């Protein structure tokens, strides 16, 4: 069942709740939402241990584009609104660009008590081509021309989807769903800032003070594993590589890692005075 909570600017944020236990908020990556992406399946595995909150980020699923224009601050406020709906505090897990949003939120929101991340899509060295400096402007120009399919194609090529795979995707129902949320791609690219140009992450960009777990997949591209290693160092996080996993991590593999990490908070909390 869909529920709604109101963000600071008045935007109604759609979310779902399942399970019981400590609150855990899942933050999706680019082009994903509750009904299109990994969060619902992952929630169904995690809800034996947590009360899991999945939500539609702005412009996706049942959440509108926003009462006010998109900005990083508005997206952080949306996370805050979901945490408040969860009772005011929660663990947070973010994947891909959703992991970047989770990092930003954890730097600003006291309601986040533990943070887990999977494969922030930064480019921190020369193991992968740097993102074009004008990619957001190019995406916005395509959007103005109504070229949603081209936006998705451009993004997919940029993240390494091979041409044959792209050709097959265009023939499936998935492509239509991707085009529906193509207008959010410039927003996700803006989340990444300039941290895609092949340089190490700035040590002062984030101020995350809660225990953090940074994860990547053993079969993921080298640049993603290097980015996660760099992010872990900057955040002072534990770093773990999941053998055999790619950027599309299996729920059955990552769920036990999340259960162990977040449950550690319960084991170390001590008795209530």
TrEMBL record:
<protein>
    <submittedName>
        <fullName>Pimeloyl-ACP methyl ester carboxylesterase</fullName>
    </submittedName>
</protein>
<dbReference type="GO" id="GO:0004806">
    <property type="term" value="F:triacylglycerol lipase activity"/>
</dbReference>
<dbReference type="Pfam" id="PF12697">
    <property type="entry name" value="Abhydrolase_6"/>
</dbReference>
<dbReference type="GO" id="GO:0046503">
    <property type="term" value="P:glycerolipid catabolic process"/>
</dbReference>
<dbReference type="InterPro" id="IPR050471">
    <property type="entry name" value="AB_hydrolase"/>
</dbReference>
<dbReference type="InterPro" id="IPR029058">
    <property type="entry name" value="AB_hydrolase_fold"/>
</dbReference>
<feature type="domain" description="AB hydrolase-1">
    <location>
        <begin position="33"/>
        <end position="247"/>
    </location>
</feature>
<dbReference type="InterPro" id="IPR000073">
    <property type="entry name" value="AB_hydrolase_1"/>
</dbReference>
């Amino acid at each position: 069942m869909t529920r709604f909570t109101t963000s600071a600017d008045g935007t109604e944020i759609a979310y779902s709740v399942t399970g019981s236990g400590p609150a855990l908020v899942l933050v999706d990556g680019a082009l994903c939402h509750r009904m299109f992406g990994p969060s619902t399946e992952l929630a169904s595995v995690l809800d034996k241990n947590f009360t899991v909150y999945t939500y539609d980020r702005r412009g996706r699923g049942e959440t509108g584009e926003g009462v006010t224009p998109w900005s990083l601050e508005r997206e952080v406020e949306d996370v805050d609104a979901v945490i408040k709906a969860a009772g005011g505090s929660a663990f947070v897990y973010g994947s891909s660009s959703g992991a970047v949003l989770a990092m930003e939120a954890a730097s600003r929101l006291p309601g986040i008590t533990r943070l887990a991340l999977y494969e922030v899509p930064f480019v921190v060295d020369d193991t992968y081509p740097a993102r074009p400096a004008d990619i957001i402007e190019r995406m916005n120009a395509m959007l103005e021309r109504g070229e949603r399919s081209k936006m998705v194609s451009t993004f997919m090529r940029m993240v390494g989807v091979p041409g044959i795979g792209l050709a097959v995707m265009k023939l499936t129902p998935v492509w239509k769903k991707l085009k529906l949320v193509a207008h959010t791609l410039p927003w996700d690219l803006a989340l990444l800032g300039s941290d895609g140009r092949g340089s190490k992450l700035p040590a002062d960009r984030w101020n995350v003070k809660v225990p953090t777990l940074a994860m990547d997949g053993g079969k993921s591209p080298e640049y993603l594993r290097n980015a996660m290693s760099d992010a872990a160092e900057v955040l002072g996080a534990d770093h773990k590589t999941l053998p055999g996993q790619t950027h599309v991590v299996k729920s059955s593999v990552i769920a036990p890692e999340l259960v162990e990490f977040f449950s550690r908070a319960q084991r170390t909390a001590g008795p209530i005075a």
